Amino acid sequence: MYNPLQNVDTTKSEPIILGIESSCDETAAAVIRGRKILSDEIASSATVQAQFGGVVPEIASRAHTDAIAEVVERAVKNAGITYADVDAIAVTYGAGLLGALLVGVSFAKALAYALNKPLIAVNHIRGHLAAAYLDSPTLKPPFVTLLASGGHTAVLYAKSDAEFEILGATLDDAAGEAFDKVARVLGLKYPGGPNIERCAQDGKDTVPMPKMLKGGGGYNFSYSGLKTAVINYCHTKAQKGEGFSKADVAASFQKAAVDVLVEKTVEAALEKGVSVVTAGGGVAANTYLRTSLKAACDKYNLTLILPEKRYCTDNAAMIASEGLVQFKLGNFADMTLTAKASIPLAATLETVQSRAAKKAEA
Ligand code: KG4
Ligand code: ZN
Q: Which of 24, 124, 138, 274 is the most exposed place for a label (fewest CB within 10 A)?
């Protein structure tokens, strides 16, 4: 019988968590002990997906099915532990591609059942936020965090270990989405962000870009105008038979897209009176963002905790890290756990406790 919570000790100082992630095109597994990463394995179908210019859900699901057992085995072996040492199994249950998520969720459930180990349901976005805790033993709320991924862009106030307040968010496209769409216009391959970054290295910020919501719109963002401006610029040049520098467009776009993120994050930190800033999500792997945010934080005496680049983009160590937060809160899933394709940002940031409190109030 599956009954893993009988002997679980949520006060254990450094639990060993196995994290499993399969929400998009990366099959990943990692093991952490406390906040220390013991292993971190990824098998990606990105090169196959690149041929199609984006992620094809069916291909992603099949690739996960092929890879997952081996990736998890490798994570456990390379961590130098055995399955018996694992205190809990944390898995991404949403948001993401449904078929892809189901592979990770089903595998994690089967493993938890077979080993009679606690199962933890991790929200992918909360995983991105928890990446800052990895290898960062002293980080604790309150802090302000920038979330910039392919699906979300927001400035958040972390009140406690598990409670976030949305200070502002994108009104239309996410920052990563804008990088991906602009990359396509420039004929750069999927995934767009790193390719724009590479292309921008040879360019100058000389192409006029629309005013972002800088100094306005509170802590909200809007990326659709920026994307349209780039599309119009390239099409107009092409219609006139004039050439243009892809590198200059990439550099100008990157600067416009990133400067507003940095400005608003630092403003929010100053307003909230926190001394620590963190960031997470694929766009936080961008070198221009990392150096600009560091310079802005230094200017105002704010401590910046940035996850290493590889823990900004999708990985399983961040899922294990959020699993650790949930482990300490005693939030465990059971065998009814299933995958969820979409979870609104506000619901993502609610805790089990705050949901229970709201229910009790109602
Ligand atoms: O967080 P992530 O790996 O996946 C989710 O959306 O959850 O983020 C992927 C996004 C993509 O839009 C990708 O183009 C962008 O992050 N990205 C970058 C960089 N690396 C990934 N954007 C700008 N510069 C990068 N170096
Ligand atoms: Zn992600």
A: 138
The reply to whether 195 and 206 lie within a common domain is yes
When pLDDT is averaged across residues 70-96 and rounded to a whole number, the result is 98
Q: Which two tokens stand for residue 289?
A: 């963002």
Q: Is 119 helix (H, G, I), strand (E, B) or coil?
A: strand
Inter-residue contact 273 to 243 (CB < 8 Å): no
Ligand 1: lining residues by beta carbon, under 6 Å: 128, 149-151, 176-177, 179-180, 191-194, 197, 281-283, 285-286, 313-314
pLDDT digits (tens, 9 = 90+) for 9-53: 999 999 999 999 999 999 999 999 999 999 999 998 778 877 887
The single residue listed with the structure tokens 């406790």 is 353
CATH number at residue 209: 3.30.420.40
Residue nearest to atom 6 of ligand 1 (CA): 150
What's the CA gap between 306 and 133, in Å, rounded?
Answer: 9
Tell if the pTM clears 0.90, that is, is over it. Answer: yes
179 CA: nearest ligand 1 atom:
14
